[in-house]
Known about the structure:
It is built from 15 helices and no strands. It is globular, with a radius of gyration of 20 Å. Among the domains are: 1-11 and 23-123, Serine Threonine Protein Phosphatase 5, Tetratricopeptide repeat (Alpha Horseshoe), CATH 1.25.40; 211-306, Serine Threonine Protein Phosphatase 5, Tetratricopeptide repeat (Alpha Horseshoe), CATH 1.25.40.10. By secondary structure, it is an all-alpha fold.
Amino acid sequence: MWLLQKWGKYTMAGTEAYELGDLATAEDMWSKALAEAEKFGEKDTRLATSLSNLAELYIRQNRFKEAETLSKRALTIRQKLCSSDHPDVALSLNNLALFYCSQGLFSEAEPLYQAALAIDEKALSPDDPALGTDLDNLANVLRKQGKYAQAEPLFQRALSIYEKSLPSAHLHIGRTLSNLALLYQQKGELAEAEALYKRAAEVYEKNTDRCHQFQAASLNNLALLYQKQGRFEEAEPLLKRAVELQEPALGPDHPDVAISLHNLAELYAEIGRRDEAQSLYKRVFAIREKNGLFDFDPQRQQAIWS
């Protein structure tokens, strides 16, 4: 009984820290939970849960090889313990697909997201938020491959599920609004995109202690939309706000901070503020060097969290 209590305590503490963006504490707690879960053995699904939690965190930390190993082990455990159409199997498929997305391997991720959705369509109620997550995940990987016609109705269905089943200020609603906005932005439907980004911002502002990751991504994307329209004075404060959100939560040397700094540097370069741009470019280079990201590509890196 005490073993179960410790696992649950560590798992809950790790989840709370992760949602707050405190990745160091989340890693510590989830690592302890995994140590406890290993004692249960591979015939207990809690081991798969702990493996999946750490895998997701490692993706956020760019520790991709470790994330892949844990994701595949979690999937193997769940496939042995559950029927092939069990929602726990869908969860592991989603997590492994997330790893492939983080590597830019969208064609490998797509069938995994499709398989997860097929399982949950049969196992869950039509308004279950987990089904909304499946739809949002699949839509996002389709968007990243330019399959906009396929992605749009999936985003809209996910949003409908969330709005029926979750509070109006829930983060899932904000994230899907942002994803759908990005789709419209990429299609060149900028007015529609701007309206959705603003709706997402209203959600994020009610959750500022929990959603810096998604809020920063949304702010960056809206800033890029304004920049494309020549609305530089409106773009600059959004990029500065993104940095302000990320630095306290992630630390000044996190790769996600480098994305926002790079975008701000690009803005300054475009409007002729070259000294400020150069200073930011130097800082971006220092961050990527510190993190071993010598092939750093801001657009590819942003794919992890947008």
